Amino acid sequence: METADRLGSGDRIELKFPARGDLIVLARLVTSAISARAGFDIEELEDLRLAVGELCLLTLQGSDAQHGDLHLELSVLGDAIEVVCTLERAQVATVPEPEGEEVARLSEQILDALVDEHGRESRDGSARAWLRKRRGGHAE
To answer: What distance in Å separates the CA atoms of residue 114 and residue 126, rounded to the nearest whole number?
Structure first.
């Protein structure tokens, strides 16, 4: 790949789409393209693609995302990619899903296996989850 086609430290890409589970495929596709251009190998690229899908699901957890948007920010930080997923303009679900916490725990376990660091938080009515994966590193 030519160096002009490569993404380097400080490059940032944003994607915003309606907060629907069937559209998470968009986040996965963009993540694959970005990680390839940032020099990640095929195995790391696949890990990131799967991890971003889980990150989006984790962000949607416990919300009534019918009217919200998922805002994804992918940043190249040296030998790492950081992805921040924010749920905007959604409200807390009026009827929480009974298996919701179990689903969230499973997503967090998957992220533990695929990336180097991750976390989530809620504030000001919006949910936010993030992950970071280093190129050539191994998630512990």
So the answer is: 25
